[in-house]
Amino acid sequence: MTDFGKVAVVMGGWGAEREVSLSSGAAVLAGLLEQGVDAHGIDADRNILTTLKDQKFDRVFNILHGRGGEDGVLQGALSLIQIPMTGCGVMASAISMDKLMTKRIWTGSGLKTPAFAVLNDESDFAAVVAEYGLPLMVKPADEGSSVGMTKVTEPDQLKPAYEIAKQYNCAVFAEQWVTGTEYTISIVGDQILPIIRVETDSAFYDYEAKYQSDETRYLCPCGLGASAEKDMQQLAKLAFDMLGGSSWGRIDLMQDEQGQIWLIELNTVPGMTSHSLVPKAATAVGLSFGELVVKILETAE
Fold first, then answer.
1. Would you call 110 a catalytic residue per the annotation?
2. Contact, 155 vs 134, CB < 8 A?
3. Residue 120 known to be catalytic
4. CATH, domain 2-87, list 1.10.8.100, 3.40.50.20, 3.40.50.1820, 1.10.1160.10
5. Among 24, 90, 187, 256, who pairs with 272 as Cys (CB 3.0-4.6 Å)?
6. Are strands 6-12 and 38-44 parallel, antiparallel or unpaired?
7. What is the CATH number assigned to the segment(s) 96-112+180-297?
8. Which of 211, 229, 245, 276 is an active site residue?
9. Global pTM value
């Protein structure tokens, strides 16, 4: 594994997803070392570029979730100093981190994503409920890992939910609720991995269900017929490509009770913890965790 040179596994950072990123980074680092890669863990701070240059790293495995690592900032900076990195480029990273921009592009491209209303201090919350109905999901536009999200089931819950999301200093929106089945589809290079169906007893697939609960169920095979699974995979790849995706990523979708599929979001630096979905999908096609992280590292550019 000398072809990769000296590899920095960049993790941690200063965003709301720091702890998850550290867990993902530790797993990625262990996987690369197991495969013989000269890999080193780097807890990113504002001096990350100096660190990478001074320590003469040849490439970066970016596992820095959320702001700073998933929003185009690190992508642009590393492009400037010409260090190859895993993951999407500047444009796709910036767009995908902004859930509102993602939804606008998908909608403009004729792809279905749940209807939404942007919220602010002047919003008529009662009018939003009247137009979009209940339940609603309130989200900060620029956070991942379900950070700051609230399921609203009563009209008087909408404004407090907005206040929670507003604390993350980004745009906030209310999204129409989709009752149905949740699926996730991982893409690594040119390979679309098998679909995983996610089931949770929580109100929604929240932070605890994603990273802490042992009760969340991940089904692969997902239960769809072969033709339906292929169609959903192709939709995910189309949605990924529409945002300029490359290297690897994960598309989350919902299928409602009438069978309609709704795109939810693209994760351009998906989690790689013991509870994470990309490794589970890779296992289904016989890829060990170590083989998976090497395959991702091969996409660095």
1. no
2. yes
3. no
4. 3.40.50.20
5. 24
6. parallel
7. 3.30.470.20
8. 211
9. 0.92
